[in-house]
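dumping these here so i dont lose them again. two proteins, back to back, each one seq then structure tokens. dont judge the mess
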Amino acid sequence: MQLEVLNIQGEKTGRMVELPDAIFAAKPHHHVLYLAVKQYLAAQRQGTHKTKTRNEVKGSTRKLHRQKGTGGSRKGSIRNPLYRGGGTVFGPQPRDYTLKLNKKEKDLARVSAFSIKASEGAIRIVEDFQIQPPRTKQFVNVLEALGIDAEMKKVLFVTPDYQESLFLSFRNIPTVNGSAFKDVHTYDILNANYLVFTEQAARLFQQAQEPVEAE
């Protein structure tokens, strides 16, 4: 798969980048995609939720009235879950939501996500550029030149490594997320409407290891 490299004015530079078909034309594995997204979202949870049981809430342990002869039901404690201020039955308790995926599953999920975006025609490659000093408006102008409305569409901007001036330029744009090439996650890919690679970042695919393929 070949894509044209565009400059920051959105014009063709005459250079092409070869993106490996083993990644961008692979058959998506939807179940592994589901697992990767589930793992990512689960990792965002702190798991510190807590409700008190009847043994933990405040209240007297005195029996409210005698067992028989009142015409009412038996009442052993004011901390009974049936009463206001009583304990909670089967409420949430602190827990770890972490899910484990092995490396092959993570790689396959990432390949599947890239393949889906390629099939949607949602990948752009822009020449390497810098914004000094960082300016949000200038970065928005670059996206508009690439045919992307940053107010309406989510963008994942991928660079070969962390580039402070660029990342500072788009950190105030809520629809733009940035990532270094080695840190791109399946969730970030699927959550974006467009993937924008700098030319240097796109050429790193040619150096990457051969991805796993779905059976």
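---- next one ----
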Amino acid sequence: MKKDRVKEERTKFSADTSGRSPADWARALLVLLLGLTIAHLGVTLFLLSELGTDTFTVFIQGLSVLSGLTVGTVHVIVLCILMVVMLLTTKGYVKPGTVVCAFCGGPIIDLFTWLLGGYISGESVMGVRIVSMLAGCVILALGMSIVINSNAGTGPNDLVAVILSDKIERVEFRWIRVACDLFFVALGFLLGGTVGAGTIAAAFLTGPLVQFWLPVTRKWFSIR
């Protein structure tokens, strides 16, 4: 009986949105943009602390070292490859918002860096840097949960854990996300990426925090 109840409470991320009206899509994309902005405020706070890059960026850095291409170029290439692969092999995950997430995150980070860079940096006292890093993890997870609950699509790199969570029903999303983050960190480090204390903290905090926020933001933004 308990197992059945747990299964019912599990978040299922895939959904058919073919019946949405243009107005429904407009609302969903607005919610997604709100979540994306919040998430990348968290990313900016995390990066400004200079205690390590996020887990996926370690992987991108490693590929950049291996290929000789810039981090930005590798990032776009990898996201595009992930989108194409997921579009061809899965159904109900890659949506218009996936493209928005792939290409709008960078400019949002640039904006927040311009706004906050004068207050938080690697030269700030360690207490400020630690608070910035931890706050960044919490805010990132909040934003990610809003993006996921918009049901308009999420970033290609975040979709990896989302899809696996739907496929591996016996394991909660948080642990699958932690496993994915650790995989990106380990592979990126072996390829030459940079790992810091903040990277390890993000690997273990992001998944559980997103799972904590998902039911909360689902009540705020119930979009189907």
